[in-house]
Amino acid sequence: MVALGPILAIATFLVLGPLDQGQDATTLRVVILADFVYVLILAALVLQRVARMIAARRARSAGSRLHLRLTGVFAIVALVPTVLVAVFATITVNFGLEGWFSDRVQRVLGASLAAAEAYEEEQRVQLQIDTAALASYLDRARAERVFLSDGDLRQLLAQGQSSVQRGLREAYIVNANGDIRIRGERSYLFDFERPTPDQIAASEQGTPIVIEDWTNNEFRALVKLARHVDRYLYVSREVDGEILTLLDDTQETVQLFRQLESDRGQLLFDFGLLYIGFAVILIIASIWLGLWFAERLSRPVGRLAGAAQRVGAGDLDVKVPEQQGDDEIAMLGRLFNQMTRQLKAQREALLENTNQIERRRRLFDSVLGSVTAGVIGLDSRGRVDFMNRSATAMLALDGVTVSGRGIDEVVPEFEDLFDKLQGGLRDVAQQQVSLTRQGRQESLLVRIAKRLNREDRLEGYVVAFDDVTDLATAQRMAAWGDVARRIAHEIKNPLTPIQLSAERMKRKFGPRLGEDGPALVELSDVIIRQTADLRRIVDEFSKFARMPEPETAHLDLAQLVRDAVLLQQVAQPDVTFVTDISPDPVPADLDATLMGQALTNLLKNAGEAIESRQTGKTGDTRPGEIRVSLRNLGREAELTIADNGIGLPPDTAKLFEPYVTTRDKGTGLGLPIVRKIVEEHQGTLELRPAEPFTPDTPPGAAAVILLPTRPPDPEAATQVDASRPEPDITPPKKTATA
User: Fold this and answer.
1) I need a labelling partner for 653 at 20 to 30 A (CA). Which of 8, 263, 388, 500 fits?
2) Residue 346, helix vs strand vs coil
3) Residue among 444, 462, 451 nearest 386 (CA)
């Protein structure tokens, strides 16, 4: 059946083509009948196979889907070459038919169109040039003669018309309505074609427009006369009528070309129909062959597909029957069973490795999350892979997505150290880095190390850092304490002899010098005053260096704050104090003397900040105000001292360093002493910008102290240290209490 198909196709082609038996020939009818019977037999065979395939597919038998796909593959394999052969044959026939077309049609058509277009363009351009020259001639005449009558203009029009090289058939001067005002030579009324309003409007631009009139074999041109009011030059020229004959020939040639083209398509259709019949026979035969062959392959492959599906579901104990033989299907069954055994062993090993990796990952996460140092992992290009909780907290990156971003973008302060490690030969780089987060300056000890694999190739980097701000501060405080002790020891001893000597010179030699006596007295007073200032500075250093241990007692913090405010109200009468202190006792273990000194220093600093603002260059003379509030938070008390003074500098951390001050006369030891006192009481001191007391005013400064409290003692009332006398001071009337 497969071999009979090409034979019938060749016989059909020979009968229709070279043998040319005609439509009534017996041979032609026999061949067509044989083709029809052949197609029916093939179709029956194919339908039988398709019915069996559909039944197997509905029953979901093994190999039914593969059976369907193989059938489709055979159909496509038969269809594609057949279509390609048909297309190639059609193209070949098309090339053969190209020789049937004469080049005369194309030459005549091209030459006729080219001649018509060239003639038309030449007439158009020449008429525009002549019209523009005649209009320019009339405009120059108007410019030379102001009073120019219509009779004179007619003579000028006739002269200009006759002077044109190729001659003009007619020449008129019309107005904006198209009415004739002046006629030239041989310009008769019955030959006049009135211009349309659109044509008159188009000629307003000063460029001649050309009007084609193939009916009268003439071209007309219209242009506005620039120097004449409401006058337009309207001329015509006769064109050759043979151009129309040329166009008719062109049209006839086109009709001939279309007729030949139509015949060629019919011939190509006949050949295509023959090729399609051959392709149908070949495709049907190929489908039948594919159905037969696919059935032999589908059954073992179907069993493999079902077993593979069970393997995909996790059942690695499945096996397929192994067939005898050395072909690929038999080998595939044996290899499949071998594969399932290996997969089962590998899965057990992978599960064990996964459990170990998960245990190590949990241990790694637990360790990184527990360490107080910050740890950042980078890839080989410096992008963040992971970051532990300590690093996120120290860098104030809570809620910020950092994965995949560069270290120079996440922490720009680490960029220099990272570049140094990349450009150097060492595997580790370490440096102390200062950075500011949320208004607080921190000192970090940063260490960056390269992360290498087993082949010593770079995999990434590990950044480890720790906050050494408190350690650095403690070291500086210890160093300043040592310096303060040395200064107090080296300077304080000579101060007393210097002061006594200056006072003795003033008393003994002042009266004896006569006229120079006042000068000696004045100079002695200078020595005495400067000695007193030095003694005051040395005393401050001594207090800072020899801060005593606090002797705590059960006291009321609220009463201590009230006493300190009362003292400063008298010392600073120009400042308004606003207090918000709970009337209930706030019990705490305090040293009354040291805590009173700390509160006094903070209140004095607030008043001096207000004075600096009022006497500064800004000219801000707003009244000074200090607000003191004390809140009992349960286990700790929060004391806030806020002012509307000059405010805080950008770096508030340096204010707690010794000998750092923003005032001209300050020693820079007040805040360090206060902080040391608060820390000795297990508390904290923080400086922050204060909320503006009034709208549209700059913020001042606020000192916030947190001190631990103790539960109230029901047996003994909270009392102030008996060694400290009660102040007998009347507050000024301007004090406001909230």
Assistant:
1) 388
2) helix
3) 462
